[in-house]
Design a protein that fits this description.
Layout: H1 2-12, H2 25-50, H3 56-68, H4 76-94, H5 100-104, H6 118-124
Protein backbone atom coordinates (compact mmCIF):
# COMPACT_ATOMS: atom_id res chain seq x y z
CA UNK A 1 0.00 0.00 0.00
CA UNK A 2 2.72 2.44 0.92
CA UNK A 3 4.56 1.82 -2.32
CA UNK A 4 1.44 2.61 -4.38
CA UNK A 5 1.03 5.94 -2.61
CA UNK A 6 4.69 6.74 -3.10
CA UNK A 7 4.42 5.93 -6.79
CA UNK A 8 1.43 8.23 -7.23
CA UNK A 9 3.24 11.02 -5.41
CA UNK A 10 6.39 10.56 -7.49
CA UNK A 11 4.47 10.52 -10.77
CA UNK A 12 2.28 13.51 -9.94
CA UNK A 13 5.03 15.77 -8.64
CA UNK A 14 7.54 17.33 -10.97
CA UNK A 15 10.41 19.16 -9.39
CA UNK A 16 11.24 22.58 -10.78
CA UNK A 17 14.92 23.32 -10.42
CA UNK A 18 16.27 26.80 -9.97
CA UNK A 19 18.79 27.87 -12.63
CA UNK A 20 22.28 28.81 -11.48
CA UNK A 21 22.97 31.63 -13.94
CA UNK A 22 21.50 30.78 -17.31
CA UNK A 23 17.77 30.64 -17.89
CA UNK A 24 18.07 28.52 -21.04
CA UNK A 25 20.58 26.62 -23.14
CA UNK A 26 21.30 29.57 -25.46
CA UNK A 27 22.34 31.78 -22.57
CA UNK A 28 24.54 29.00 -21.19
CA UNK A 29 26.23 28.57 -24.58
CA UNK A 30 26.86 32.31 -24.72
CA UNK A 31 28.63 32.12 -21.37
CA UNK A 32 30.75 29.22 -22.65
CA UNK A 33 31.77 31.24 -25.72
CA UNK A 34 32.74 34.19 -23.50
CA UNK A 35 34.88 31.93 -21.33
CA UNK A 36 36.48 30.34 -24.40
CA UNK A 37 37.39 33.76 -25.81
CA UNK A 38 38.87 34.83 -22.46
CA UNK A 39 41.02 31.68 -22.29
CA UNK A 40 42.01 32.05 -25.95
CA UNK A 41 43.19 35.62 -25.33
CA UNK A 42 45.01 34.71 -22.13
CA UNK A 43 47.12 31.84 -23.55
CA UNK A 44 49.96 34.01 -24.97
CA UNK A 45 50.25 35.92 -21.67
CA UNK A 46 50.32 32.67 -19.71
CA UNK A 47 53.03 31.20 -21.95
CA UNK A 48 55.13 34.33 -21.46
CA UNK A 49 54.57 34.81 -17.71
CA UNK A 50 55.16 31.19 -16.75
CA UNK A 51 57.93 30.72 -19.35
CA UNK A 52 56.31 27.52 -20.60
CA UNK A 53 58.08 25.21 -23.02
CA UNK A 54 55.16 25.35 -25.44
CA UNK A 55 54.01 27.74 -28.13
CA UNK A 56 50.88 29.83 -27.93
CA UNK A 57 49.41 27.66 -30.69
CA UNK A 58 49.90 24.51 -28.62
CA UNK A 59 48.29 26.24 -25.64
CA UNK A 60 45.29 27.30 -27.70
CA UNK A 61 44.96 23.78 -29.08
CA UNK A 62 44.89 22.46 -25.53
CA UNK A 63 42.22 25.00 -24.56
CA UNK A 64 40.12 23.83 -27.50
CA UNK A 65 40.66 20.20 -26.52
CA UNK A 66 39.53 20.91 -22.96
CA UNK A 67 36.37 22.65 -24.19
CA UNK A 68 35.65 19.89 -26.72
CA UNK A 69 35.86 17.36 -23.90
CA UNK A 70 32.60 18.76 -22.48
CA UNK A 71 30.75 19.75 -25.63
CA UNK A 72 28.24 16.90 -25.21
CA UNK A 73 26.78 18.49 -22.05
CA UNK A 74 23.26 19.82 -22.68
CA UNK A 75 21.95 20.69 -19.19
CA UNK A 76 22.22 24.47 -18.54
CA UNK A 77 22.89 23.93 -14.82
CA UNK A 78 25.81 21.60 -15.52
CA UNK A 79 27.14 23.99 -18.16
CA UNK A 80 26.94 26.84 -15.64
CA UNK A 81 28.92 24.82 -13.08
CA UNK A 82 31.59 24.03 -15.68
CA UNK A 83 31.76 27.71 -16.64
CA UNK A 84 32.16 28.69 -12.98
CA UNK A 85 35.02 26.21 -12.59
CA UNK A 86 36.59 27.45 -15.83
CA UNK A 87 36.42 31.06 -14.64
CA UNK A 88 38.03 30.08 -11.36
CA UNK A 89 40.87 28.36 -13.22
CA UNK A 90 41.29 31.39 -15.47
CA UNK A 91 41.39 33.76 -12.50
CA UNK A 92 43.98 31.60 -10.75
CA UNK A 93 46.08 31.57 -13.92
CA UNK A 94 45.83 35.31 -14.54
CA UNK A 95 46.73 36.17 -10.93
CA UNK A 96 49.68 33.74 -11.03
CA UNK A 97 48.29 31.74 -8.12
CA UNK A 98 49.37 28.62 -9.98
CA UNK A 99 52.86 27.39 -10.57
CA UNK A 100 54.37 26.17 -13.80
CA UNK A 101 53.82 22.54 -12.84
CA UNK A 102 50.10 23.12 -12.32
CA UNK A 103 49.73 24.38 -15.86
CA UNK A 104 51.97 21.76 -17.43
CA UNK A 105 49.79 19.00 -15.92
CA UNK A 106 47.21 19.73 -18.59
CA UNK A 107 49.71 18.78 -21.27
CA UNK A 108 50.54 15.39 -19.80
CA UNK A 109 47.01 14.19 -20.54
CA UNK A 110 47.80 13.96 -24.25
CA UNK A 111 50.53 11.40 -23.61
CA UNK A 112 49.80 7.73 -24.27
CA UNK A 113 47.51 6.32 -21.58
CA UNK A 114 48.94 3.74 -19.25
CA UNK A 115 47.89 0.14 -19.92
CA UNK A 116 45.09 -1.22 -17.78
CA UNK A 117 44.88 -4.95 -18.46
CA UNK A 118 47.42 -7.50 -17.28
CA UNK A 119 48.98 -8.44 -20.61
CA UNK A 120 49.42 -4.84 -21.72
CA UNK A 121 51.13 -4.03 -18.43
CA UNK A 122 53.32 -7.13 -18.82
CA UNK A 123 54.35 -6.22 -22.38
CA UNK A 124 54.92 -2.57 -21.41
CA UNK A 125 57.13 -3.48 -18.46
CA UNK A 126 56.78 -3.32 -14.73
CA UNK A 127 55.74 0.15 -13.59
CA UNK A 128 53.51 0.20 -10.49
Amino acid sequence: MASAAATRTAVGASKVVKPIFSRDLDQAKRRVRELYRAWYREVPNTVAIFQLDITARQGRDKVREMFDKNKHVADPRVIDMLVIKGKMELQETINVWKQKTHIMRYFHETEAPRPTDFLSKFYHGHDP
